[in-house]
Each structure stands twice: as structure tokens, then as C-alpha cells.
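Cross-posting from the chemistry board since nobody answered there.

I work mostly on the small-molecule side, so proteins are not my area. We synthesized pyridoxal-5'-phosphate and want a rough idea of how it might sit in this target. Sequence and SMILES are below. Is it possible to get a predicted 3D structure of the two together?
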Amino acid sequence: MPTNAELQARRDSAIARGISNQLPVFVARAENAELWDVEGRRYIDFAGGIAVLNTGHVHPRVKAAVAAQLEAFSHTCFMVTPYAVAVELAEKLNRLVPGSGPKKSIFVTTGAEAVENSIKIARAHTGRSAVIAFGGGFHGRTFMAMALTGKVAPYKAGFGPMPGDVYHAPFPVPYHGVSVQQSLEALEHIFKYDVEAARVAAIIVEPVQGEGGFYVAPPEFLQALRRLCDQHGIVLVIDEIQSGFARTGRMFAIEHSGIEPDLMTLAKSLAGGFPLAAVVGKASIMDAPGPGGLGGTYAGSPIACAAGLAVLEVIESDNLCARAEVIGATLTGALRELQREIPAIGEVRGLGAMVAMELVRNRDPHAPDTDLTKALVKRAAEKGLVILSCGLYGNVIRFLVPLTAPDAIVREGLAIVAESLRELTGAVTRAAANG
Ligand SMILES: Cc1ncc(COP(=O)(O)O)c(C=O)c1O
């Protein structure tokens, strides 16, 4: 088997640099919350393939469902000769997504595609074109999703022009001095300065910003968006691609606010490692595009739909929403304790097991410590833990521990975080000198 270094060198010459890799760790196999590289080194995985593995790597029941589907058939194209497994998954999602009226779903392959389709559906339904998104939001790398994303480098820089009629308002982040009131006022300013509310097709928002830094939208903010959309006939699209499927202690993060979305975008943990995404929403809106207006060759792959059904069963039978609360409490408890010792930890925040810590200089929210964050990711990997950074300034460590991870693994990973941070910030030396 080639070494990590050999594979990295081959990767560098074979694969374009636009797709970067955080660690030069080439995976040989993975199970639940652990993975092993090609050199036989074991890692604890707190990245979960970027929020894809709420049910862990290769969950036995997901594996069995996929194997059974593969025995039957792997692809026909749903648009040619459909199959029951997609219908069954759609029925389940229509029941699970909050909202009392009839709902319908479509399946596509990636999160970005789900976002693109949600905007197509909202435009077809309203006959309007404008879309509002939020600063720091991330919605994907295809053109409309990229335009909606509220972060220029590296996602938009050099790729313009963006699709038109997209506007951004600031996301409420009290830690950075942006209140709910200010965000709502900024929306009113968009209606005054840029586009009349009657021409806005959709507002798209993440209930917890993922890539942007794990900032939790306050419930009163989401409730105000709901009222605003109702008042102006705007479609409210809730992007749960990163926050969905038990991550926050509820099936969907929007449930913490009690509001009903018009449309919801889903992907990532929906199919436990298989490429599947969905738009689920009010039937009257979902049915706006005419036959043939939506779809894709691989849209709703039977293999991925079989995985999705198994994922939903595991979330329910293993009570992963409750488990997310327990893991979240363990993470936030340990990180807050560490925060008292290490001034570089500016804030520890989260919802359920969607937990992050923001690294700053001298407890100053306006002094992001991007270098320390990068160094921490690297040091933790050297000690056998995979963690991910995020945030507008790349100074946030996000924890996406599989919800199936046993307590011992969660504690082992947290110990590596603490040890690495102490070493990098000199806390060890200070503690030794003091003691
Ligand atoms: C909230 C959110 N929306 C959309 C996307 C895009 O999903 P994909 O990478 O599958 O296209 C992501 C991916 O990180 C995401 O976190």
C-alpha cells in the first residue's frame, strides 16, 4: 500500500488544487467514529465527513440496506422507470418535516442541487425572481448556491459574474455585535434600497450556520422571518443540509424555533455517506414547476434512498436525538472548562451536538486567531484526531461527532483537543510554572 506522502504527491499532480484536502491522511477503512489511514494509523473522527455521518461510518444497518438494494438493481433513473424505495423515503420525509398541511418531496444528488432546486421551485410558485440570503451563510458551490453563499473567499472569488437578484442581510451574531433587531432592520433596508418585497421569491436561511461558524439563529429571529414571509408572500427556505437529522437534538434544527418552513433543503446525513439530497415542502409550492422542470439522471439513486430509509430507522430506534443532547452536553461542558484555563477560547456555543469553539486573541471577539486554529487542526491530527475548522475568518473549530460514537471515544477525542490546545498556547508551561 502506498504511503500518505506518496499518495499526496500523486494527488497533487493528478487532482486540481481547487479541491483542497485539510489533512494528508489517505483513508483505508472506517467504522463508526474511527478511521484508519493507509499506513495503519488510527484516527478518531470528529469531522464526520462534514456532517454526513450522524449515524457513523458504514452503520451496519445502512450497509445491509445498501447491499440488499444492490442485489436488486442500482440504477434505472427515476425519471424513466421509478421505484418504491424513493416513494417510501419521500413519504417518510413528508411526515417528518414540520408543517401540518400536505407535503411533497423531490430527490437530487448534492446539497447545492437541493438549494438550486428550492429557488427554482420558489420562483415558479411566486412568479418572482429576487432571493435574500445571509452573510456568512453557505449554500454550495454551483452558481445559484454560490451566489447565495455569504462568503467571498474562497467560494466566489474569481468566479463571477454571479446570478443576479440575490441580496444579503447580516446574520444575527450577538458575539460579534449583530443583534436580531439589526438583522431585521437590514432586511427592511434591502426592501427600501434594493428590491421591493413584492418581487422577492424566497428568503433562504440556515437555522444554525454551518460553514459560517456554527452560529445559532435565535428562535425569535426565525419567527420574525416567518412573519415577514407570510406578510409579503415570500417562500421561506430553511437550509438544514448541515443541521438536520438529529444533529441538534431534534430531527431538524428548525424545530427549536417552532416555525414551519415553506421549503426545506436536506442532504449530508440524510443517507449516511451516500450522495442524496432533497427538497421537502408544502405540496402547493412543490408542485409549481411543470412536469420535466425538475430532475437529474442520478436524482434519487435507489442505493442512496435505501441508505436514507435505514438512516431514518437508526435515528429513531437508537434515539439519536437524545444521544445528540448527551454528546452536546459532554462537548460543551469540557470545552467551557477548558475555556476558563485558555484565553484563546473566545466562545463555546452550540445546539445539541452541533458544537463549536471560536479561537481569538486575548478573549477579544474581534481578533480571530486563524493561525492557532490551523495549528490545532494539524496538531490534533498528529495525535490521532480529525477535527474541522470553519467560520468567516477560519477561526472556529466545529465538532461533528457521529451521534453513534461511544462515550469513551468522545472523551478520548476531547482529551486530544485539550492537550493540543495546551501545548499550542503554552498553557502547559504556565500550569507547570505555577504549580
Ligand atoms: C448548509 C449547507 N447548504 C448547502 C451545502 C452544499 O452541499 P453540497 O456540498 O452537498 O453541495 C452545504 C455543504 O456544506 C451546507 O452546509
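Reply from a structural biologist on the board:
Welcome over. Reading the output above for you: The mean pLDDT is 97. The CA atoms of residues 127 and 201 lie 7 Å apart. Happy to explain the C-alpha cell format if needed.
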